[in-house]
């Protein structure tokens, strides 16, 4: 039995659907969760889907993934651009880490062009709206060898 894929979302993503919808789309986080669950189910697997506005909470969940996840998908949101502590936690993982963004940060303000999380990411999916999460899950399954 393959371990679940853990999907973490960072600050302000609880407001998806109403937060700058012209950038992040109209899907709510619950919509994204449903899409992730359906995608995982189509691979015969499950997801643990969580969101927090708190850096320490995200770090605790990254540490939990060390034992209980087969791969980690993370949209670090603003913390990707600021958090060395989150990077340090991610660097302790020996499972695939897929960084995921709804928008394409590289095409936005200069300060979004750098993410610390990328230094620990196996790969990055960005710019496809809610579909970025599904593509990240597909990539995770590819990396862990689940068809
Ligand atoms: C984001 C991009 C980040 O720059 C931003 O701080 C977010 C969301 C995205 O999903 O496009 O909160 O990670």
Report on this model:
Helix 3 packs parallel to helix 4 (84-90). It is built from 5 helices and 5 strands; from the N terminus they run βααβαβαββα. The chain has a 5-stranded parallel β-sheet, with helices on both faces. The radius of gyration is 14 Å and the shape is globular. The chain is an alpha/beta fold and 147 residues long. Helices cover 36% and strands 16% of the residues.
| Straight-line N-to-C gap | 13 Å
Instruction: Tell me, rounded to a whole number, the average pLDDT.
Output: 96
Number of DSSP-assigned strands: 5
SS content category: alpha/beta
The rounded Rg comes to 14 Å
Counting structural domains, the number is 1
Question: Summary?
Answer:
With 147 residues, this protein is an alpha/beta fold. It has one domain (5-144): Dehydroquinase, class II (Rossmann fold, 3-Layer(aba) Sandwich). Helices cover 36% and strands 16% of the residues.
Helix/strand layout:
Blueprint: E1 5-9, H1 21-24, H2 29-42, E2 47-51, H3 55-68, E3 71-75, H4 84-90, E4 97-101, E5 123-126, H5 131-144
Parallel strand pairs: 1-2, 1-3, 3-4, 4-5
The protein binds 1,3,4-trihydroxy-5-OXO-cyclohexanecarboxylic acid.
1,3,4-trihydroxy-5-OXO-cyclohexanecarboxylic acid binds next to loops.
């Amino acid at each position: 039995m393959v371990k679940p894929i853990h999907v973490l979302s960072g600050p302000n993503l609880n407001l998806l659907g109403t937060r700058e919808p012209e950038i992040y789309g109209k899907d709510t986080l619950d919509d994204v969760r449903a899409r992730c669950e359906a995608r995982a189910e189509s691979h015969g697997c499950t997801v643990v889907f969580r969101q927090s506005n708190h850096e320490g909470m995200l770090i605790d969940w990254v540490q939990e993934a060390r034992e209980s996840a087969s791969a980690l998908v993370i949209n670090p949101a603003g913390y990707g651009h600021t958090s060395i502590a989150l990077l340090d936690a991610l660097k302790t993982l020996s499972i695939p880490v897929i960084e995921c963004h709804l928008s394409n940060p590289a095409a936005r303000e200069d300060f979004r062009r750098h993410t610390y999380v990328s230094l620990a990411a196996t790969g990055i999916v960005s710019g496809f709206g809610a579909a970025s999460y599904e593509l990240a899950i597909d990539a995770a399954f590819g990396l862990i060898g689940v068809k």
